[in-house]
Amino acid sequence: MKLICLTFLLFLSLMANAQNNFKASQIKFERVENAYQEKWETLQKFIKSAGYGKEISMVINAYKVEGKLEIWLKSKADKNYSLFRVYDFCAHSGTLGPKVIEGDKQTPEGFYFINVFNPMSSFHLSLGVNYPNSVDLARTGIDRKPGGEIYIHGNCVTVGCIPLTDDKIKEVYVLAVEAKNSGQEKIPVNIYPFKMTEENVKKYKTKFPAQLGFWKTLQSGYLAFEKNKNLADIKEVKGKYVVK
Is 153 a catalytic residue? Predict the structure, then answer.
């Protein structure tokens, strides 16, 4: 029993060190270090005043029509997220509807998570999104390329990504580093065509009728988050999102 307890404590210690090492490894890069020097003191004050504590969890919601990227935070002790910051896209690409194939210049729509932290990006700083997932691959089909390398990044240019100004990506990047350093393995990135109210769905389905079935599944996730201020249980099942 003692051996089991010691092994478990060692595992927890290694996990804590790995988290702390992530921030330490990121801040070695000049752009990340500069972002912390410029942004972290102010962000910390707002985090403290909002009562989140030192360890945060983070959700990113993005809306293509509105051109808005929302940052939702909560402390580890909290059950529900609250809105912390809203940033404007500084450029747009494509139209409504999900990304389907390489080169279509579409910004994806769906439920994703951050899978890359790039402190040496060609677009200042960038956070990679795990497109394509299994839903995207099913949509693209066999023997066609779905494309990839979708990021939230700086530098205000895009061919399918979510671009912010260099000034704003510094804040988003620092917050993402803090969330990962607090132990959040997957930071959700939910990309919607628009704020998915019934009114908006009715408005846009006329012009994009082929997307209605897909949008209804996204709307289920959107409405669950709006109601509960927490993530729904979202699975990828046979090429579709299933929201519980």
Answer: yes
